[in-house]
Amino acid sequence: MTLSHLATEDVFVVERNDADFRAGQGMTKGLGIVFRKFRKALFGKPNSDRADTEGQFNVQYPEERLVLPEAYRNMPILLYDDATGHELCTSCFQCERICPPQVIHITQAKDPATGKPVPAAANFVLEYDTCMSCGYCAEVCPFDAIKMDHDFELSTGNHPELDVNYDRLLRPISYYEAIAPTMWSDVKEQAMKKLQNNIKRRPGAIGRDHGQKIKGGAAVAVAATPAAGAAPAAAAKPRGPVAAIGKNMPEEKVAKLISIRAANAAKRGGGDAGAAPVAEAAPIVETVVDTPAAASAAPSGPVAAIGQNMSEDKRAKLEAIRAAKRAQRGE
Amino acid sequence: MADALTQLGFASWLSVLIASSIKVTLILVGGSVGMMFLTWYERRSISYMQDRRGPNRVGPQGLLQPISEAIKTMTKEDATPREADKIVHFLAPVVMLGATVLSFAVIPWGRMFPVDLNAAVLFVIATGGLHSIGMMMAGWGSNNKFALLGGMRGVAQLISYEIPQVMAIIPVVLMTGSMSLQKIVEAQNDFGGLGWYVFSPVGLLGFALFFTASLAEGERTPFDIPEADSEIIAGYMTEYSGMKFAVFYLSNYMSNLAVCFITATLYLGGGNGPGVDALGGFAGGLLSLIYFLLKSFALFFVMVLIRATVPRLRVDQLMSFAWKFLLPLVLVNILSASFWVALLRWDQQWPQLTEWFGAPSTADATNWGRLAIAVGLTLLINAGAVALIMRLTNRNVQKHLYTTDEELALGLS
Ligand code: SF4
Ligand code: SF4
User: Fold this and answer.
1) pLDDT the model gives residue A76
2) pLDDT top residue among B59 and B207
3) Cα A92 to averaged position of ligand 2 atoms, centre (Å)
4) List of chain A residues whose C-beta atoms are within 8 Å of the C-beta of residue B306
5) Chain B residues whose beta carbon lies within 8 Å of the beta carbon of residue A7
6) Per-residue buried b or exposed e for B175-197, using 16+ beta carbons within 10 Å of the residue's own CB
């Protein structure tokens, strides 16, 4: 290790030369160094140059803030186009697959007319509490739809609030451009091209109309002051533990959960309280029904996950291959 | 105060009681407020030494931080271990605090509130010794091995360092010819209030020795092994929580404060300083109080500086430092103090010598000449002793820590 970044008078080499007379010179020198530090920190200016080894290094946090480097990453967010209001995400599941702690949960949207999956996400849930900010999702996303945010003030008294849904994840591109201008300009062209292609491939009704929210003012304000960092649509959607818990469960499990909660609420003996969980739980059933796996009553488990994006005949082929393999193994 | 109350028509026993209660309350309040200030002072200073800013949020410059912490400790759960000796466990912090508060009784606060006890030095030493009882009570009563170990180490340290500490005061007592702290302060009033003992060779060495030993007495770094947090968790305080823990802390800081006061009194001239005599009266008294507090807090700053610089000693290093280094130096210092006193004023202190044995009177020589001789001689003795003991200690270290190749070859070790 090199000590060249330290002032030379800071480096005190202890020489164990027994011929030398040791009468506390070392200690006096040490006290001197510490006293000099004290003097400089007390009377000098707060240190602004990180290469300097003396002066106060504190940043008085809520009032003063360090400028975050562009590549700083905290939690993932999803981008949408300011002009059209279209999300960039195509529900390709790349991020869900790569995520090491598996905290991304995507539900693919379907064309209501044909029932076929379209390149858009119906819901997108990210467990912020378990995300480790590795940034893999942002690296892997072919559409530059998921990016890492700079907002680190996420503390909450309500733990399930850290399961963040689609609406709370969405930010306009202008917001990301404000926090990471060069990083966005690097990918801007291809991302916008892909977005145009993507919009062509999905029916008009699919995707969310974020354009109006922008015109409404709230989202624009967020985009203009990135430090505020609040989710643009956060207030619009009911947040709550129940919605979060149900998101990945199969139908029957959700039903069971609801009945258990109802029973518990009845035991607590509140008429009002009993009504609440059921009412809260209702949207879950909807969400679950939405998912292709549940709707087509296809085989559950890994097959369902793999097959989600395939055409029907491809899926049939896959099933045939698997059946043959199982037969080979003698099951 | 008692007299004034009697004149107001109170019964004499009642007026004494009321006056004493007021005084005790004042000392207690002063002590705890002083301790609160000290915790803030220490944390602020040490944070600047570490390029930080320290507590600065609660109140102006963080001055109300100790109060918020007091509220916090008071609202904390007060847990006593089930197997602990309840009474002893409860009484230990009381004994500790009591021992500390007692030593505040004799401190001469500049010239404002003269308290004269003609054996004040003895009193300070005696109350200092009570700490080890409290420590052992805490260690034993907690019924916890870490606590017992911490208490044992603490008591061993206190007893070891008490000896050099007490003996370091002897030169001062010799030079003054009195054990009263008031007289000791008065004796340092020469040269326009600057005749502090620390300016004489004997006093300088005595000051260094006494202050070092006092650091160990007050369990300050580098001698904080009774509570060595990295080794025995928190030592004798392991099983204490909430306000009981805070009382230990209080007593610790108050005793550090007392040590600073007493060091300032013994060696740094107490409230003496230029201008005190000239002003006289109330203004002079106030100035002397300011001098006294300034000196004490400067000493406390040195304690903080040492804490920020020096790492903790190992327990065997601690013991050998006390017995092999401090103690011999203290003995030499007593010797040179005797020479000092004899040269300077043996015919004043012991007139019998001239009377009975016909020894020459020191009044014959000029004052400055005698002073020069005394300074030279004691300087010689002290410096020689320091050098010799340094050499001896160094050689010991060398012998025991390193094995030379030749020794290995000869199979000597
Ligand atoms: S940052 Fe890493 S852990 Fe967090 S969601 Fe993305 S891939 Fe998963
Ligand atoms: S990788 Fe990108 S486009 Fe694909 S699902 Fe994730 S966020 Fe959407």
Assistant:
1) 93
2) B207
3) 5
4) 31
5) none
6) bbebbbbbbbbbbbbeeebeebb
